[in-house]
Amino acid sequence: MKKFHITTFGCQMNKHDSERMAGLLTDIGYAQAENADDAQILIFNTCTVREHAEDRFFGNLNNLRSRKKSEPDLIIAVGGCVAQDEKELIFKKAPHVDIVFGTLNMPNLGHMIESVERRRESICEIADKIEIMPTTMPSLREEAYHAWIPIIIGCNNFCSYCIVPYTRGREASRTLEDIHAEVERLISDGVIEITLLGQNVNSYGRDLYGESSFARLLTDLNGIAGLRRIRFTTSHPKDLTDDIIDAIAHGDKICEHIHLPVQAGSNTVLKVMNRKYTKEKYLETVEKIYEAIPGVSLTTDIMVGYPGETEEDFLHTLDIVEKARYDSAFTFIFSPREGTPAANMENRVTADVKADRFDRLIKLQNRISLEKNKELVGRDIEVFIEGVSKKNRGVLTGRTRTNKIVNFPGSQEFVHSEALIYVTDAHTWSLSGELKKILDT
Fold first, then answer.
1. Which of 17, 121, 340, 433 is close enough to 421 for a disulfide, judged by CB 3.0 to 4.6 Å?
2. Is 388 a residue whose pLDDT tops 60?
3. Over the stretch 301-335, which tens digit does the pLDDT of each residue have?
4. No. of helices (H) and no. of strands (E), the chain
5. pTM of the prediction?
6. Which residues, 6 or more positions from 174, have their beta carbon under 8 angstroms from its beta carbon?
7. Res 282 pLDDT > 80
8. What's residue 54's pLDDT?
């Protein structure tokens, strides 16, 4: 039995895609290897959204040249956004690759591997529109209690820096009935927590029902027996409507965490980014969230050094961070993505200025993150115990409904239980506590 190994880069959608690929290959007779050295089939599920992820991928790929020479029967497959974007160019950059397949070609991966095994000829399959939803594929989940649920694939927003609409295609939603049925099947398989996925979950259903139906979907899933936690990512600020906020506020299973990428605080920069909202409108939405959902955790994405960004523009970003008071933020320095409008923009910000602004942003956000975590010290919070700490086998690690990591002493028998934790200490990115009681087993 040949073994495969999948290396995943990038977002949660890629993590889900890798679980589907693993399920497909396992279903047709291959076995999953614990590490790449034991595998005869190596699959790279790539990301081109950030330059760092793409560079890491090509670094991993180039390291395999010598192994391919010594193991000519080794099969190397490249999928994901880099494959969708660069297509046959990957063979020129890395001639030792056997298969290049696009984000919409995953269902045919097994046939491609079998074809290479028979013919020993390279294959490139890149589809421009979705024909088979990846959710029809079997899945080999990383965690028994949790499942990723794509509800909408693709994006219609065309932010000027983003390659996703070109690599994932235009928005295509699954029907509410299909999603509901999948969640019920997963619950019967032991899943208690789901994360709804989409480049813009707030657009869910617009292509099927003529209007956003995300609030309706959340309310529907909240009523499914056996499901305990519902998470979702990512929301677009221009589409986070009052009915969605209301559904989150009133859904007892819907976690109080909203990831709301702001990207920049300057209206000038936001307009050039094609984000379709203003700083004022964004802060108005934030105020509605805080008013409607007590104790909510708000996180975001922020980019510094966008072409044309002035010091005044950047100060608006710092101001929005101060006013929104994010629990945490994914922060990035702008890197051009070939094929996007931003790649050809002039008036680039110099590297030293970008580094200085990035450092100032990080210091501000870290201060706010620590302040918000300190507000929880002395409180009892509900935590789902996800596993054992890698550094200390006597310490358990869990996650709050607000998506905060909590570490506390405890026995391994409590893993995958819900617990009440007394918070004793706060750190920038996590909390420490003491186990008060197990809420269930």
1. 433
2. yes
3. 999 999 999 999 999 999 999 999 999 999 999 98
4. 15, 19
5. 0.91
6. 133, 135, 150, 151, 152
7. yes
8. 79
The sign of the CA dihedral 275, 280, 285, 289 is positive
For β-strands 172-173 and 193-197, DSSP reports them as unpaired
411 burial level (CB within 10 Å; 0-12, 13-18, 19+):
exposed
Tokens coding 44: 């790279």
Mean model confidence pLDDT for the chain: 94
Q: Are the C-beta atoms of residues 208 and 246 closer than 8 Å to each other?
A: no
Going by C-alpha positions, the residue among 219, 310, 307, 317 that lies closest to residue 265 is 317
Q: What is the largest CA-CA distance in the chain?
A: 65
Report the residue count for the chain. 441
103: which residues sit within 8 A by CB, 6+ positions away? 17, 79, 80, 81, 83, 84, 167, 168, 169
* Residue 395, amino acid: V
Answer whether 194's CB lies under 8 Å from 227's CB.
yes
Q: What is the pLDDT of residues 78-127, one digit of tens each?
A: 999 899 988 988 999 999 999 999 988 999 999 999 999 999 999 999 98
Contact 304, 330 (CB under 8 A): no
Distance CA 222, CA 171 (A): 24
For the CA atoms of 172, 49, 148, 275, what is the dihedral angle to 10 degrees? -60
Helix 279-292 and helix 242-250, axial crossing angle in degrees, nearest 10: 20
Name the residue with higher pLDDT: 55 or 186.
Answer: 186
Position 168 scores a pLDDT of 84
Distance in angstroms (rounded) separating the CA atoms of residues 62 and 174? 38
Nearest to 206 by CA among 142, 161, 155, 268: 155
What is the torsional sign of CA 159, 160, 161, 164?
A: positive
The DSSP secondary structure of 56-80, one letter per residue, reads HHHHHHHTTHHHHHH-TT-EEEEEE
SS3 176: helix
Give the dihedral sign, CA 208/210/214/218: negative
Query: Among 149, 198, 137, which Cα is nearest to 172's?
Result: 198
Could you tell me the sign of the dihedral formed by the alpha carbons of 21, 27, 30, 36, in that order?
Answer: positive
